[in-house]
Amino acid sequence: MAPKKKIASAAAVAKEETEECAPAEVTTTTTPPTSPQTESLPSACNAVELYATLQAAVSEDPVKLNDFVRELLQALSDAECPDAPLLVRVRTLEFISKYGQHVRDGNALKKIVTSLVKILSGSEDTPQLLVAAVQGLSSLGPVSVLDKKWEYLSREGADVLMQVMLDEEGFAESVRQAASKALDSLIQTAFRPVVTKLLHWISDNRETEDEDQLKKERRMALTRLRKLAHTPSLQCQWTEEVQEHVLSLIVRVLPTVTVQEFVQLTSIAASLPIVRAEAGVPFLKAFLAQNAINTDRVLESLSIIGEHIGATPYDIVPVLEDAGLLTTPVEKNTARGMWHAKVLLLAARLATPDNIDKLYNALLEQLAHVMHDGSALPENMTTLEVLLLAVMAAGQKKPVEMLKYLNDDAFVAKCMGLAELVGQMEPLLIYAVKKRVQKSSAGQKDAEVIGCCHNVRVILSAFSAKHMPTGTLTESWLHKNKLPSVKHTRDPAAMAKATKTTAGIAGAAAGQLGVLPPPPGTEEHPKKRSRGQESGYNKNANRNKGGWNGNGRYKRARRGGAY
After folding, report:
1. What percentage of the chain exceeds 90 in pLDDT?
2. Which residues belong to the signal peptide in this entry (predicted)?
3. Domain locations in the chain?
């Protein structure tokens, strides 16, 4: 199975990483790896005796386990052997899961990880043994945070545990649930190494034959990382040092992920306390320090990051000048033009008094380019909306100059022309969206288009009246807009369909109840008979018509008539 193959290779990766990260680990230990009494093990020593020896060693003080490292390694070797008694193998791994955190020998720690991975990747399918193995991996969390050269223990442990969680064919449900709980425990004891491994999984873009497996891995890692960022009980783990580490990793990972993953990672980075404290500026600084705005992807990335930046002074005009974004005309009908406009909007909101003049003039030129002569709307209405909002943001910081510009007859004429076109288009747009609502095919994009059209109309109408818009306008792409309500009228086609359905139901009911009588007014329709007459239950009906009654006496008919 593919996941189990990867688990098998994880041991080799762990070995390589150990040699790279900790070259002196093999020879340096905090306690002697062997005690004087364990230099020569008796050949008759079996797995049961080894387990008993280890139990006796930790009965008084678990730290004494470091004096029995040789016995521990021998017990692990026996646990790997399928011929050893299953109970002893399970008890040995449970011993590791309970006392493994007290081991301080580098060789022993590496051997523990290798043995546990070997058991999980082998052909063994006994749930008790596999559950004990995954619990043993999580027990090494406290050791891994004692020294950076031992962080690989938790990183590789998290990697193997997530592989077990994903492998539905190779492991039973109980084992995968145990791996999930073990990962939660590992997060509590070794938060930073696990977060590092999650980000490595998200950025893993290796070539593999099983692309679906790779997507599952990235999806799981992103889900776990998002959970770590928003779980209240884990907030104490997000120290300032961890936040800076995670922020730097996210910035390095962003160029390798998809747009959907980029949006989620950006949201996670923006939620970090050190980022929120400064309205997102640390995230923006870190991104601009690592990326030059010279590609469409970086431009789009910056426009997405800008959605999480608050209105706090920060000068990004020099960066935009170096990229030529102030002088390069905004493309009217492309996605790049929309990203370009959003970056200019970000600059307008963050503008400082030192650069507002240059930015204000550049925004007016870009708006004049997009509006042209006011006789036609651009294909991408969002670009026009963004530039109008950017001019408003810059105009609020230069109110006198903005008021003069609003009294320019040429500018007012353009605004009036475009406002008229938007006023003609908006009812048609709402009608089209309502039709989609009736067909249950309308979505958030349709509501966003209506919100965009509304914002453009409001701003252009205000500019046509030579004043700034009153009230608060929300960006159509940032907030959830409502779809227009539709009145449910009687549709002839729907009514005909309902009538046909009703007739079908009636026919089915008639088939169940029997043949219905002919309708009234037809020859076949019988007259209503009096109750109790001509029925099988009135045996003396003829007698009661004026003949002899049941007692043999002649009696007059009850309901009129002659004798």
Report:
1. 55
2. none
3. 1-189
